[in-house]
C-alpha cells in the first residue's frame, strides 16, 4: 500500500516507520524544512528508544522517505494519515489549525479517490469537519472517505506500544473503507474495534480521561494518607489487586503532565460543556491535578523555611522517564517556584536538559545527579528515571549539604532513606 503520513512528531514518525516496516511504501511529510532535512540525514528530532534504528533501516531499504512536498506525497498515496499537532487553546478547547491546514493541503492535491485517516487526537465531530474542509477546497470532483484511527502509544515506549496495542480502533463511514484501513494492521494480529467515526473519536478522549481520573484518585488517596499516617503505595497495591480496578496508573506523585493527558482532559471537558454537560468527575480530576504540584512545592517551602538562599538539586526534568519531552513537565512548576522565591536550582536529567535550557536558560545544569547534589540544601526528585531509583544513597548524602529529599515520584523506601540519614518526604508515605 502507498501511504502518506502528514506530521513527523511522535505519532507521525512511529506510524510511518511501523507501516513501512510492515512492507508499505510510506512518505512522511512535514512543513518544517529543517526537520525533514534532519530526518533525511537519519537524525531523530525526538528521543524515543528504538526509533532511530528502525527509521534508518526502513529508509535505507527504500520504504520510508521524508519530504516537505505534500502535493506529491498525496498524489502517490491511497491512504493519507493526518498526524499533526492538536495543541490546547487558552479556554481548554483544541486548536484545530494544523488539522485544517493538512485537510486543505490534501484537498488541493487530491487527483483520485483517497482514504483520509485522522490519527491526531481530535474532538468528536472532526471527521465531519475534515470532510467539509476537503469538500469545500478540493480542486477536482474526486471522491474520498474520512476515517478515525486514534493512537494510544505512550512516549518512551512508543514503538512497543504501537506494535502491541491493546486494541486498534477504526471508526469508518462504511465496512469497505474500515476493512481497507484494518488490512494495514492485520500483520500485528491485535484486537480490532470497528465502529462509527464519532465513537472512535470519543474512545480516545474517554480512555485518556479515565486514566487521568485513576491518577487523580490515587493522588487524592495519597493526600489522605499523609494526614492519617498511612502509605499510599500499600493502599493502592491493595486497591489495584481487585481485577475490576487493576493496578495500572495508580501511582501517586506530582500529577500527570506531558503532551496528552492535560490537554485531552481539558478538551473533553470543553466538549462536554459545549453540549450542556458539566462532567463533574473530569472537572475534579483536573482540579486535583492542578493542586498536586502546588501542595508539593508548599511542603518543600515549609520544610526549608522558604527558598531564599537555598540550593535545590533537581533530579529529573522531563514529564516522565525515557523521554526528553518537557511539555507540561512538573519540573517547570518547581523551577518557577524556587526562582520566584530567590532560591537556586541545579538540575540534572539524563536527556531532557537541552529542551529545558530553551525554557529556563538561567538555571544551572549539572553533569550528573551527584554533581547536582553538591552542596545542596535539598534534593527534589520529579522524574522516575531508573538511574535515580538505583542511586547510591551514601554518595548522594555525602554530596549534599542538607539532608532533605523530596520525592515527587515515590521512588524510594522511606525507611531506607531514614537509615541513610535523609529527612525523607514522599507523596502519601508514612512519616514513621
Ligand atoms: N505524543 C504522543 O505521545 C501522542 C500519543 C497519541 C496521540 N497523540 C496525538 O497525536 C497528534 C500528534 O502528536 P505529536 O506529539 O506527534 O505532535 P507534534 O506536535 O510533536 O508534531 C506534529 C508535527 O506536524 C507538523 N505539521 C503540522 N501541520 C502540518 C501540515 N499542514 N503539513 C505537514 N506537517 C504539518 C508539525 O510541523 C510537527 O512536526 C496530536 O493530536 C496528539 O494529541 C500524541
Ligand atoms: O500511575 C501513574 C501513571 C502515570 N502518571 C503520570 O501521567 C503522565 C502521563 O504518563 P503516560 O501515560 O505514561 O505518558 P504519555 O506518553 O503521556 O501517554 C498517554 O497519553 C498518550 C497521548 O494521548 C496516549 O496515547 C497514551 O495511551 C497515554 O498513556 C506522566 O506525567 C506520568 O508521570 C502518574 O502520575 N501516575
Topology at a glance:
Layout: E1 2-6, H1 10-21, E2 25-29, H2 33-40, H3 51-60, E3 64-67, H4 70-76, E4 79-82, H5 97-109, E5 114-118, H6 126-137, E6 144-148, H7 158-163, E7 168-171, H8 175-185, E8 192-195, H9 197-228, H10 232-240, H11 261-274, H12 280-304, E9 311-315, H13 330-340, E10 344-348, H14 353-357, E11 364-365, H15 369-373, E12 378-381, H16 386-389, H17 393-399, E13 404-407, H18 414-419, E14 423-425
Parallel strand pairs: 1-2, 1-4, 2-3, 4-5, 5-6, 7-8, 9-10, 9-12, 10-11, 12-13, 13-14
Helix pairs in contact: 1-3, 4-5, 5-6, 9-10, 9-11, 9-12
Could you walk me through the main structural features you see in this protein, from its secondary elements to its overall organization?
There is one protein chain. This protein is α/β, with parallel strands linked by helices and 432 residues long. It folds into two domains: 2-194, NAD(P)-binding Rossmann-like Domain (Rossmann fold), CATH 3.40.50.720; 211-425, 3-Layer(aba) Sandwich (Rossmann fold), CATH 3.40.50. It contains 18 helices and 14 strands. It has helices spanning 10-21, 33-40, 51-60, 70-76, 97-109, 126-137, 158-163, 175-185, 197-228, 232-240, 261-274, 280-304, 330-340, 353-357, 369-373, 386-389, 393-399, 414-419, and strands at 2-6, 25-29, 64-67, 79-82, 114-118, 144-148, 168-171, 192-195, 311-315, 344-348, 364-365, 378-381, 404-407, 423-425. The strands form three sheets. Strands 3-2-1-4-5-6 form a six-stranded parallel sheet, with helices on both faces. A six-stranded parallel sheet has the order 11-10-9-12-13-14. Helix 5 links the parallel strand 4 and strand 5. Helix 4 (70-76) packs across helix 5 (97-109) and helix 5 packs across helix 6.
